# Entry
Amino acid sequence: MRNTAPKDAAEIDALETREWLDSLDYVLQSGGAARVSRLLRELGDHARSQGVKQPFTANTQYINTIPAAEQPPFPGSREIERRIKSLVRWNALAMVVKANKAEDGIGGHISTFASSATLYEVGFNHFFKGKGEDHDGDVIYFQGHAAPGIYARAFLEGRLSAEKLTNFRRELKEGGGLSSYPHPWLMPDFWEFPTVSMGIGPITAIYQARFMRYLEDRGLKKRSNSKVWAFLGDGETDEPESLGAITLASREKLDNLIFVINCNLQRLDGPVRGNGQIIQELEGAFRGAGWNVIKVIWGSEWDPLLEKDVDGLLVKRMGEVVDGEYQKYAVESGDYVRKHFWGKYPQLLELVKHLSDEQLKKLTLGGHDPIKVYAAYKAAVEHTGQPTVILARTIKGYGIGESGEGKNSTHQQKKLNEDELRAFRARFGIPIADEEVAKAPFYRPSDNSPEISYLLERRKQLGGFVPSRKPQSERLKLDTLPDVFTQFHKGSEGRKASTTMAFVQMLTKLLKDPEIGQLVVPIVPDEARTFGMEALFRQVGIYSHVGQLYEPVDMDVVLYYKEAKEGQILEEGITEAGSISSFIAAGSAYATHGINTIPFFIYYSMFGMQRVGDFVWAAADTRTKGFLLGGTAGRTTLSGEGLQHQDGHSHLLALAVPNLKSYDPAFAFELAVIIEDGIKRMYKDGESLFYYLTVMNEAYEQLPMPEGSRDGILKGMYKFRASDKKKAKAKAQLLGSGAILNEVLAAQKVLAEQYDVAADVWSVTSYPELYRDGNAVERWNRLHPGEQPRVPYVTACLGKTEGVIVAASDYVKLLPNGIDRWTPRPLVALGTDGFGRSEGRSALRDFFEVDTKHIVAATLSELALDGKLDASVAKKAITDLGINPEKPNPAIS
# Structure
């Protein structure tokens, strides 16, 4: 007897499902989508309360977010825009091909822009707003590897010459060339932001969007509907910086931010997620973080097929296929696609039986369809309350033919042979003669052609060309600036204070300055109390777009945690990467927004240069202005914290950044002179500089400023205290920096009183500045033989002195050793090479051999080697001073 129960159960299940769906349709028709959403949420809550456990998913089906029926009409001329895009494609490709023919291996990337051309062209023709005197524009972070396409469009716009394109990646050619990627340092009138160090673009775009809100909320910038666009690749999202701050964007409700992720499924070596689906993975990440997600996966040719997919098998099949298979479909024939994609289910083969293999092969993906991209962009710019990410499915190397389209090797493709160039020309209808194709000539129609006329009119309507960097801020007058700093020249008059405390006092006065007070932007990554900045909480407030929705736990104390919509401090939390992204936004606002904001970013010095060095390099490239302050600096000055916290090498790392001026001031007056001069040079004189200053947490008397020391402070060294010993057995020159200058001053006294050595003390505020000066002078002398040689500043300072030269600092010995070639006699360096330790200051300075006794011993030993003292004196001193000559070397212990 046949059992009919399963059939009956199945029929009942289907009937119940149908009834539920009909009920839902009724609610949708009568109550609308909002009512359906509430109902589903309440049903879910009720099910969970009854013990039903539903697996969480932030994913939607593997189809376009915007249905065809909801697409807005496409404005403008699709045909002319297609021709413009084809010309841009050709010139971008020709640029890279010509460059590599002229110089093999010069590099360049064809495939990234080939896959993203539609994403950019729809933006250029309809969305990207230019900047003008009476209107804000959009802020756009272009994907670095797509630079050839951006140059090619600027060529059609008449902004770049054919000569410039010919010299792509050959910037030193006569007439100049084009940088490989977006580099404002190299092309300061064109690029705004460097993006090719993967992950830098996305995170700095997020903090740029937040900084725009900050400027608006504080009344420094009028409110506008300008957007921040960030273009990146799907492979780039593996960088922690790319996704690490996306919750900030949703938390701050940054609906002025739009990410466009080019999901061509490939990175350099192979698929991004061969065994998965990167689009679904990213959708889950962004939806889970609170973003508005728009998927643009399938082109318009898929719409009628999806409309006929009544049983959902096509949507099911789309979701089954992993990216490695999708990549395979892109390079195989239509017959292969029919068999392997459509052939899994007979119903799907029936669905496409009217399409030829060639038609199946040519079904367009969403990221290559202007209609789909336009609909996504329009929805993104109109969306409110959330940031938006657009996940656009494309094919890497789209259009470059069988040699590279969709293949793993396409990222590295730099050349095409004549047949491949002919095929590309034919595919995109470029009017170049057969005999010229092999030369890959650039092509630009006449100015009155439909393409150029249309292109220029669209940019006029959108406010001007992009990218374009146009600093419009007025130089600051700074008439009252000296009043802020002069009080620090006289010292603390016996009171003990750290240079960090002195800096906070300076910052407090700057915030009250009538001209620049409102422009100062204090930035701190959750260490304000460490640096003694909590008084500023009450004075200027911590920025919050929503103000303060709670009563802080410390409301009853004077220095309570005060958040405010007009707050001035950017309290970023525990994120140096996010903090320096804010620093870059604030320090480049003079160019981006025409506002001279002056950022002061203070942080644990150890977690600066070595942790976010890539961002510091990007800041330099961006021509950022402002001050980085390494707090709790010095390997032996920060006591107790140990190996991971004690910084003894940040100045060495800073030295590599060409436009970063780094100083290690010992006293408040040095710090005051440097900051005052820095503000003047950056914001009055307009120099493209920024500063790195180390400040310490060791409290000691802040001595008064010696007369005539200002120039020396800025140049890198000056004589702080000459020996008052007129007659002595020997002489020495002692160089000290930062907190170790106090050890040097103590050593000067010991040498004079106990060993009859007259030592002059020099304060070295910046070894990097001395190093750069010496090299610059040396270069000039080398290139000008026969002319009066110039003299390095170090030589000018020490050239007429007598005695051995001993330099001690809280940093690695390589810093003082870097100036040894310009000292009149060999320099002996004492420094803190090696790992830090959890100890007190005196023990640490003894361990690293930079304390008073080691400075004295080093001086006496050098004098003995120089024949100025008997070796027995130096040997006895080592014993008397309690130094163990056999102790392990701190550099390797």
